[in-house]
Amino acid sequence: MNIPSPSGNIGLVFSLGKFEIEGKTKVIDRIVIEERRIIVTIGGSSDDARILMKDLLSLIASFETRHEVRPIIPVIEIDESQSTVELAIDFHRLLSGSISANIPEVFGSLTNVAPPSMRAAITPSALRFKIRYLGENEDLKKHSISMADKYVSIEAREGIGIDARIFFASAPVKSDSLLEFLRYFENGA
Question: How do the domains of the chain map onto residue ranges?
Answer without folding.
Answer: 1-74, 81-188
